[in-house]
## 1
Amino acid sequence: MAVQNTFVTLGYSLNHMALSEAIVLKIPVFLLGMSDFFHFLHIQSLVSKSIVGWVELLLATHVVFYCAWEFFKREWSSIIRKNE
């Protein structure tokens, strides 16, 4: 309870929708990135490595910029205010 009150007083909020979306999108990125080690998936026989790379880029970009947008906003405000 004390930890929860600390987060509320500091202004941190957890966007559950963005978190669940990030988790759902990280699973295919992980499987595609580790497809060399998961031979039972046979991803290389379905599509080329360049297409896999582009799909990873699209999924990871969405996770970074949409799901972590609050982090980037706070980071930018800290840089502007010169806080550590």
Note: Residues 65 and 72 are 8 Å apart (CA to CA).
## 2
Amino acid sequence: ETMGTNLVLRTGGNHALMQLAPLSRKVQWNRELKQPEPMSARERDAFQALSASLPSNGKSVRITGPLLNGSKTLENGCKLVLEVREFKLQELK
């Protein structure tokens, strides 16, 4: 859902909010090159694609990406930021 100009994820059980953000870097490590794996175009564009296809009623979304703990509460009340690496829309059960 959107909150102001931000895209946020409301979790099911306790209704906690997480601000969603574009992936800034991958956490997967290339041991041979001793550096993070490069982002694919799909991963780089995942946040924008999710923003363009917000789930409607009767759908949920599964998001994969790094979860960052903000040092302070953001202006929208979120304390956590989830960077979108990939997502999948699902029918509610």
Note: The chain has a mean pLDDT of 84.
## 3
Amino acid sequence: MIRHVVIWKLKNPADAPRFKANADVVLVCTFTNAEALAAYRTHPHHQAAKLQLGPLSKSRRVLDYHIAQAQHDAAAVAPAT
């Protein structure tokens, strides 16, 4: 499995009230394999997010890393803090 993390630094957080953010925006996704991650890159939802966040962001960082199924399962049932 691949964990995909994207962090955007916003130019002006006040310009993004929909996100209710006063700092950065973070997206975390988990994909079953590299092929699923590659398919996501061309998916309409991904393209829409790029169009919406692109003009608002000052910078963007991406981190992809492999995780075991057990890590994914444990995170799925962990209580939110």
Note: The helical segments are 34-41, 44-53, 69-77.
